[in-house]
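Contributing new records

If you add data, match the layout below exactly. Sequence lines come first and carry their own label; structure lines follow with theirs. Keep one chain per record. Anything else will be rejected by the validation script.
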Amino acid sequence: MKKLVCITLTLAMLLTALVVPQGFVSAAGTYNYAEALQKAIYFYECQQAGPLPEWNRVEWRGDATMNDEVLGGWYDAGDHVKFNLPMAYSAAMLGWALYEYGDGIKASGQKEYLERNLAFALDYLVACDRGDSVVYQIGDGGADHKWWGSAEVIEKEMERPYFTCSASCVTGQMAAALAVGSIVLKNSTYLQYAKKYFNIADTKRSDAGYTAANGFYSSHSGFWDELLWAATWLYLATGDQQYLDKAESYIPKLNRQNQTTDIEYQWAHCWDDCHYGAIILLARITGKEEYHKFAQMHLDWWTPQGYNGKRVNYTPGGLAHLDTWGPLRYAMNQAFLALVYSDSITDTALKQKYYNFAKSQIDYALGSNPLKRSYVVGFGNNPPERPHHRTAHGTWLDKRDIPDKHRHVLYGALVGGPARDDSYKDDIEDYILNEVATDYNAGFVGVLCRMTAEYGGTPLANFPPPEERDDEFFVEACINQNSSTYTEIKALLNNRSSWPARLIKDLSYRYYMDLTEVFEAGASVDDIKVRIGYCEAGMDATISPLTHLTGNIYYITISYEDGTAICPIGQEQYAAELQFRIYAPDGTNYWDPTNDFSYQGLTKDLQKTKYMPVYDGATRIFGEVPAGSVDPTPTKTNPTPSPTPSYNVLKGDINLDGAVDSLDLSLLKRFVLRKWPNRDVMYPEPYGKLSPEEFTNGDVNSDNVIDSLDVSLLKRFILRKIDKFPVGS
């Protein structure tokens, strides 16, 4: 009977949460909240790690950190570390937004986008399972923060270690995220792992082992708040009284306010401390006066009226300014809590007070402030253009000031926000005021869901707009030396790629020359030689013999044995210098480079030239070729698939050679990246270009799909960290 009552109560809460409540006065919508929501959700696609899903809309992002212990998840902020504590918190908040206002944003078309982005993070949290522990961080915070470059090429700069533990703070937060995700996405796997992670957290009741994140995301508040938060969401997900009992048993363990008997109320709901939101949920679940009293005490402290003569600091322009670091993040979290609580009570005065507070804060962020500017990248009037974000900046030099403007628009990112006097500087160097992060946007998305549910709005059509691209691969060249018998060229092959940043193995460029004067002098092509005078260390290059193009036009090809050595990660790597000489025999006087196609525009000063085209394999990716010439096109073949072998299933053996080894892992990764197999034949769903046998072996967890989770499991199997593949995990 208790369980039935709990489930009935939960369903009733869900139904009431889906309707925008009446009983308070709201002004007209000040901004296009649906557009702001559209962009705020898109920000999470900018943060995706691993193999990007087909639905990722960010043209300047690509598959990245593909050698991580666990693929997927979100990069934390403007860096590339995957910190599970704030990641799981952010996912929980997005789930809470769907739980409260999911139906209210259906008409805007944004619910599906929000659900997709939430599932992407939750799938990663599931894949972090290591039995009695979890992978809680990937990447070294110190090393990562010392380097400024794009996510897609970070593995050329540094290794990415991973860290495991069973600490209650992070396992509890992961449990909470998966629990709310199981409700809004109706996913039983998420609930299974929510229960498992909660059991780990509740059994351990310690943060021991959670060390790698110290100094970045230290667990200042301890772990009782995460246990409370997770148990509350598990109760809502299951209706099981034991979780509610556990949640209430943690209340006496919570930190107190300044050595009083009051539960700490003078801070904000955030990645480190979730007891504020958890108690607001308990107030609604149980109706107990003590929880309502706390909720009102806490929210009153955030309003201009304050509580018991005290309140959070306010800027002159009206922003509730808790802390120097990320004040808008805290204001948005509190605005969301205020709206959730306001929507759950009947006291009209309180409803109006908390609603007014929330709307004043979201409108401040969107432009109702003394500077009359938006604090959301790509939205509203005079938005930030220089957020502290490496990949959006798109440098190739490991420098924050080159280029002087960001190459990409980080749509929807909420920056840290102004100083306490409302002043603000849009400066990439100011990581306090101009930081962005997944947890900054989490409560912000929730508030925008509520505002969109009430006021509607119009998301942008054809969003995001295509970006105007810079040249990414090109040659800079100059005349190093000239004489009557030779021309010496200094050339730098550049990789300044950023759509996305990427590496090309088979990278080359060409130099075209007209040998008319050579032939008119009675000499032949064999009389013209080419040699390398200088090749930058570590950039091994070769020059081909002269190749006939058409008429008297010939060319040489400068190829790099491994073009990935030329990468946009720093001053010494983004370009490869080569000096080469084209020469006739000593004593001759017929050599004349001035009619050469690739000699056009060259001077003693290094400059970009379009007349030395760059190739990715046989595909020209930059520059021009002589008139009348055509680049060779590789011949497409249609291989016939091998006959279906008769064999026993061997999970992991995707190449069907009878062994499970690193070659299988490599092929599985390439399949997830859509780079293998190359055959054109298509098999029935779900096999695609894999044969049924290949698919069966590659789907190591037998869930009828091959994805990053299969890659992670196969890697662990090969490393002997597991001795069998879990079914359906």
